[in-house]
Amino acid sequence: MTAGGRAEGAEPDAARPASRGARVLSALFYGACSFLLVLLNKALLTTYGFPSPIVLGIGQMAATIMILYVSKLNKIIHFPDFDKKIPVKLFPLPLLYVGNHLSGLSGTSKLSLPMFTVLRKFTIPLTLLLETMVLGKQYSLGIVASVFAIILGAFIAAGSDLAFNLEGYVIVFLNDIFTAANGVYTKQKMDPKELGKYGVLFYNACFMIIPTLIISVSTGDLQQATEFNQWKNVLFVMQFLLSCFLGFLLMYSTVLCSYYNSALTTAVVGAIKNVSVAYIGMLVGGDYIFSLLNFIGLNICMAGGLRYSFLTLSSQLKPKQPVDEENTPPGFEALESGAECRLGAQGGHS
C-alpha cells in the first residue's frame, strides 16, 4: 500500500498493467470531450463569427494553468515544482502543443464539419508512422489495410468537396502533423518519475501562453477579439467560457487516454468520434454542400475508421495479453483511488 499523498509513479504500481475499465473509460472520456469541443468551437467561430481562434486558444491555456495549479495547491494532484531542467525535459512538446492547439482552432473555422473531420483522419496514418519511428511499435496487416481505407475515403471526399478551401486544407493537414507528433512525444515524455501527465499539461501551457499572447497582440488578433460585438451577449460569453473549460478537459483527456492506452489508440478514438461529428455537421453545420461522390467518400472513410478502431481496441482488450511497457502506467492506483475522477469533475493538436 502506498503512503498517503505520495506522488504518482510508485514502484509497485509500475509493474501493474492498466485494467480494461481504465483503458475504455479514458478513451470514452477523450471521445466525449473532443466531440463537444468541436461542436462548441464551430458555433463560436462560425455561427457567432468570433474573429480570433488564437484568443480562444489563450483562454483554454489559461483555464488549464488555473485548474491544475489550484488542484496542486489543494493536493488533489502532484507534479514537480519548476526548475531550469524542465524546458529541456519537455522539448519539443511546447512547440507541438501550441501548433496543434492553434491550427486545430483555425481549421475548424475554415471548413465544414464533415470535411474537417475527414481531413483530420490523416492524423491516424501519421501517428502510426511516428509511433513506428519514435517508439518502435509494429502493427498488423489488418490495421494497415484499415488505414489505407481511411486515406482512400478521405481523398475521394476531399476531391469532390464543393466548398473547397485551400487555406483550410493546409491548416488542417498541419494540424494532423502537430496532433500526431504531439501525441507520440507526449507518450514518450510522460515519465511519472519526471514530470508526469499533469506536469506535461501544466508546463506546456505555461511555456506557450506568453508567446501566443505576444503573437496575438502583434498581429492585431487580440484587438479584433476585444472589439467583437458579442461580448455583451450572455449566451456567447457562457459558450466562450465553456469552450475554455472544455479545452482543458480535452487536453487532460487526451493525455489520460494516451497514458492508459497509446497515442495511436487516442487517434483511433478520435476517428470514432468523427463519425458522429461529420453526420451531425451535414444536418446542423449549415456549410456542407452535398454531392454524391463526396458522400460516398465520407462513408468509405468512416467505415475504415470504425474497422480500424475495432481491430485496435479489440486487440488491447484480449485477455492474457503480454504486458507491454507502453501499456503499463505507473501510478495506476491513482485512478482506482478516485484522483482522476476528482480532477475530471473539476476541470479539457481535434
Automatic annotation (TrEMBL):
<feature type="transmembrane region" description="Helical">
    <location>
        <begin position="198"/>
        <end position="219"/>
    </location>
</feature>
<feature type="transmembrane region" description="Helical">
    <location>
        <begin position="259"/>
        <end position="282"/>
    </location>
</feature>
<keyword id="KW-0812">Transmembrane</keyword>
<feature type="transmembrane region" description="Helical">
    <location>
        <begin position="24"/>
        <end position="44"/>
    </location>
</feature>
<keyword id="KW-1133">Transmembrane helix</keyword>
<feature type="transmembrane region" description="Helical">
    <location>
        <begin position="139"/>
        <end position="160"/>
    </location>
</feature>
<dbReference type="GO" id="GO:0016020">
    <property type="term" value="C:membrane"/>
</dbReference>
<dbReference type="InterPro" id="IPR004853">
    <property type="entry name" value="Sugar_P_trans_dom"/>
</dbReference>
<feature type="transmembrane region" description="Helical">
    <location>
        <begin position="288"/>
        <end position="310"/>
    </location>
</feature>
<feature type="transmembrane region" description="Helical">
    <location>
        <begin position="50"/>
        <end position="70"/>
    </location>
</feature>
<protein>
    <submittedName>
        <fullName>UDP-N-acetylglucosamine/UDP-glucose/GDP-mannose transporter</fullName>
    </submittedName>
</protein>
<dbReference type="Pfam" id="PF03151">
    <property type="entry name" value="TPT"/>
</dbReference>
<dbReference type="InterPro" id="IPR050186">
    <property type="entry name" value="TPT_transporter"/>
</dbReference>
<feature type="domain" description="Sugar phosphate transporter">
    <location>
        <begin position="28"/>
        <end position="309"/>
    </location>
</feature>
<feature type="transmembrane region" description="Helical">
    <location>
        <begin position="166"/>
        <end position="186"/>
    </location>
</feature>
<keyword id="KW-0472">Membrane</keyword>
<feature type="transmembrane region" description="Helical">
    <location>
        <begin position="231"/>
        <end position="252"/>
    </location>
</feature>
